[in-house]
């Protein structure tokens, strides 16, 4: 039996694993045995999600044929099985009718951070070449966009970790802001554990005492939405105590005087009052970062999913630059990518304003280069469209998208203000969803297309380090299931643009290499063969003689001046603050056993047994005030909706804050879609709520 070396379908670690053929499965298809592999990222480790990933390949809920509404145009009629020909006919008719009546931009696509680089690239090309529309964005807008925007404007490049994950084990001080890798990506903890075993000190900033915080030297518990204050306050202390690296600032950066001036108003007493973090903890954190190096500052969604998320990420980047951390060995600033291909998915054209290689769609030179690779006139390419939530909020409205194709995303669960999302989806003239299961979003569709799973396809992914790796086919998909690349190619053919597309992953990747050449995310020197022989290649890699770039910024920054830019940022209140009607703060996040919207993991028995339902984490003092006991059902209510969850009492969370996981429908009925003005990231991490025992229902 031939074993296949491939990678986990879940988070951005992209852990290595081996799939070995076994007896046929319950669907009558070849089965596989899954084992961890000695890949440089996971080093033989897997989390519970990774170990059970193969359970989904033959799951009885799996979509095995296209589905269409029994009564065309009536989404209240049941879905029935259909041929691909019928499904395509309905989709193409809807596209043509809409574009004829409402214009090219009335048809759009919403992609996902789990798509391979080849599929993300082909989807962006499909929308702009086959549909000739500007209407495309993806769920990564809800994940990495704020940190990406801050990194681009300050460092000239957005790569989540500008160094290999293994470097974390060598850092002597690590500050984790809004990150809980112990639950979100457990195999990564081996690097933190190794560092601590060698004497490193870790500081965790989180309103909850998470499993990551349990092992930290310090745990800072700020009020959600005040991380920018915390960062500026730490920089204030560093300046006052003489801990900033003046030589580094002079030699390698620009713009520091404005930032220095801005921090004058963030004296420790004010910062403590606004954040709730004691002054002594502020000073100890800065002292460790400045004097016990090498040091790293790592941010994640807890710091970034805010209406000021870009500026918050920028504040932590400013601190890292002022301390001279960036570009030095085992040191620096990084952000922890969440989705499996969250990094690659945003580099090659799924975002509304981007072309492959992280090029700007409004840049004439970028348009000319990519159009040349695609074989079209640059003037045919549309202008930039709107961001993910803006697209959703405009569905069905005048000037908005009327026909939408959703791939690898379950926006009914994952997008903010989910009641509004459902309402907008229902206003569409036509909805198509491609998925492996009938997700909550697919359940609203006119046409549902079954798609191949991770072990049934070829392609590349780019992990949180910027390491491009290969996903390999271990078994064929079920007979009537097609890969997204095939569907994109066949639909393009039905639309009269088939000559521009192919469903051969290797051919698509070769074109991607040419399209990305010379861009920020340059893959030109990366081939399938190199990935195989080198266990992944780090971008940028401009030619085949180039070794790849595991570590960025050692000599210079890819900015016009070659220097990193400080950017002044000031605190502003969260878009929604508690008041007498909604007196508490809700923050959302992950549990260890589930992933993203739960469309996959909620179907794995071992994971649902371990965590069968969502639980609202509430401090005992807050629970006592409302007569709530551990295990009671509680109703959480915001200005947008309500959700009922079972209470989990914990003294590890702030008494003014409630935590809810977003893997089930419910939490995002509450969240606020207020957008960051720079990144268009919604404010997932802060909204005002009230709570009561579900039996009572009064506030």
Q: Between the first and last Cα atoms, what is the distance in angstroms? A: 63 Å
**Largest β sheet strand count, sense and barrel closure:** 7 strands, mixed
Can you give the helix content as a percent range?
25-40%
**Structural class computed from helices and strand pairing:** alpha/beta
* Lateral strand order in the biggest sheet: 5-4-18-17-16-6-7
What shape does the CA trace take? Answer: globular
Low-confidence stretches: none
Mean pLDDT over the residues: 95
Number of distinct helices: 24
DSSP strand count: 30
Domain 4Fe-4S Mo/W bis-MGD-type: 1-61
Organism: Actinoplanes subglobosus
Protein name: Molybdopterin oxidoreductase family protein
InterPro entries: Asp_de-COase-like_dom_sf (IPR009010), MoPterin_dinucl-bd_dom (IPR006657), Mopterin_OxRdtase (IPR006656), Mopterin_OxRdtase_4Fe-4S_dom (IPR006963), Mopterin_OxRdtase_prok_CS (IPR006655), Prok_molybdopt-oxidoreductase (IPR050123)
What is the topology?
Blueprint: E1 4-7, E2 16-22, E3 31-36, H1 48-51, E4 67-69, E5 79-81, H2 84-102, E6 107-111, H3 117-130, E7 136-138, H4 145-155, E8 173-177, H5 181-184, H6 189-197, E9 201-205, H7 211-214, E10 218-220, H8 227-240, H9 246-252, E11 253-254, H10 256-262, H11 268-275, H12 279-291, E12 295-299, H13 301-304, H14 309-322, E13 332-335, H15 342-345, E14 354-355, E15 359-360, H16 364-374, H17 388-393, E16 403-407, H18 411-414, H19 418-427, E17 430-435, E18 447-450, E19 459-462, E20 467-471, H20 484-494, H21 505-516, H22 528-534, E21 537-538, E22 564-565, E23 584-589, H23 605-610, E24 615-618, H24 620-625, E25 633-637, E26 642-649, E27 657-661, E28 672-675, E29 682-683, E30 687-693
Parallel strand pairs: 6-7, 6-16, 8-9, 8-12, 9-10, 11-22, 12-13, 16-17, 17-18, 23-27, 24-26
Antiparallel strand pairs: 1-2, 2-3, 4-5, 4-18, 14-15, 19-20, 20-21, 23-30, 25-26, 25-30, 28-29
Helix pairs in contact: 3-20, 3-21, 4-14, 8-11, 8-12, 8-14, 16-21
């Amino acid at each position: 039996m031939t074993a296949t070396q491939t990678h986990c379908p879940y988070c951005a670690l992209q852990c290595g694993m081996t799939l070995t053929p076994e007896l046929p499965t319950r669907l009558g298809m070849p089965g596989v045995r899954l084992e961890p592999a000695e890949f440089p990222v996971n080093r033989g480790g897997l989390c519970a999600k990774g170990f059970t990933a193969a359970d989904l390949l033959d799951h009885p809920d799996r979509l095995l044929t296209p589905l269409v509404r029994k009564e065309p145009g009536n989404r209240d009629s049941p879905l029935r099985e259909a041929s691909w020909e019928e499904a395509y006919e309905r989709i193409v008719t809807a596209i043509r009718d809409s574009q004829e009546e409402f214009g090219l931009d009335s048809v759009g696509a919403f992609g996902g951070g789990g798509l391979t680089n080849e599929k993300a690239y082909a989807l962006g090309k499909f929308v702009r070449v086959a549909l000739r529309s500007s209407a495309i964005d993806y769920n990564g807008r809800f994940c990495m966009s704020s940190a990406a925007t801050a990194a681009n404007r300050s460092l000239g490049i957005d790569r989540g970790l500008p160094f290999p994950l293994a470097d974390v084990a060598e850092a002597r001080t690590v500050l984790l802001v809004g990150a809980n890798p112990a639950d979100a990506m457990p195999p990564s903890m081996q690097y933190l554990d190794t560092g601590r075993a060698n004497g490193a000190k870790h500081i965790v900033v989180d309103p909850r005492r998470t499993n990551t915080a349990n092992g930290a030297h310090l745990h800072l518990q700020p009020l959600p939405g005040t991380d920018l204050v915390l960062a500026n306050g730490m920089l204030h202390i560093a300046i006052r105590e003489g801990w900033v690296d003046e030589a580094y600032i002079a030699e390698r950066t620009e713009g520091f005087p404005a930032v220095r001036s801005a921090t004058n108003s963030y004296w420790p007493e004010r910062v403590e009052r606004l954040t709730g973090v004691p002054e002594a903890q502020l000073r100890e954190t800065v002292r460790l970062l400045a004097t016990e190096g090498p040091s790293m500052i790592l941010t994640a969604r807890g710091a970034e999913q805010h209406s000021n998320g870009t500026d918050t990420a920028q504040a932590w980047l400013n601190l890292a630059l002022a301390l001279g951390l960036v570009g030095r060995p085992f040191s620096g600033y990084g952000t922890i990518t969440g989705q499996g291909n969250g990094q690659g998915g945003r580099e090659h054209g799924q975002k509304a304003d981007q072309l492959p290689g992280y090029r700007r769609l409004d840049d004439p030179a970028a348009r000319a280069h990519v159009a040349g690779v695609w074989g079209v006139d640059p003037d045919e390419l549309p202008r930039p469209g709107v961001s993910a939530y803006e697209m959703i909020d405009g569905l069905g409205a005048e000037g908005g998208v009327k026909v939408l194709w959703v791939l690898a995303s379950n926006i009914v669960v994952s997008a903010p203000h989910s009641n509004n999302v459902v309402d907008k989806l229902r206003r569409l003239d036509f909805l198509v969803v491609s998925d492996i299961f009938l997700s909550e979003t697919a359940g609203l569709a006119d046409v549902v297309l079954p798609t191949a799973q991770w072990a049934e396809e070829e392609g590349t992914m780019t992990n949180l380090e910027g390491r491009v790796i290969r996903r390999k086919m271990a078994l064929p998909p079920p007979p009537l299931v097609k890969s997204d690349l095939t569907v994109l190619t066949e639909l393009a053919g039905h639309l009269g643009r088939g000559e521009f597309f192919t469903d051969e992953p290797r051919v698509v990747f070769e074109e991607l290499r040419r399209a990305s050449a010379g861009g920020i995310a340059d893959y030109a020197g990366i081939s399938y063969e190199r990935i195989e022989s080198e266990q992944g290649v780090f971008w940028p890699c401009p030619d085949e003689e180039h070794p790849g770039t595991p570590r960025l910024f050692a000599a210079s920054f890819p900015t016009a001046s070659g220097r990193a830019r400080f950017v002044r940022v000031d605190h502003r209140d969260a878009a929604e603050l508690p008041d007498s009607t909604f007196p508490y703060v809700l923050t959302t996040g992950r549990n260890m056993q589930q992933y993203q919207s739960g469309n996959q993991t909620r179907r794995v028995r071992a994971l649902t047994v371990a965590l069968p339902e969502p639980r609202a984490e509430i401090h005992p003092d807050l629970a006592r005030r409302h007569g709530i006991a551990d295990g009671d059902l509680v109703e959480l209510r915001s200005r947008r909706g309500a959700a009922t969850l079972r209470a989990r009492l914990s003294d590890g969370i702030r008494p003014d804050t409630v935590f809810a996981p977003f893997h089930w429908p419910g939490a995002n009925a509450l969240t606020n879609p207020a957008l960051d003005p720079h990144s268009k990231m919604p404010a997932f991490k802060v909204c005002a709520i009230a709570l009561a025992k579900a039996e009572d229902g009064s506030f």
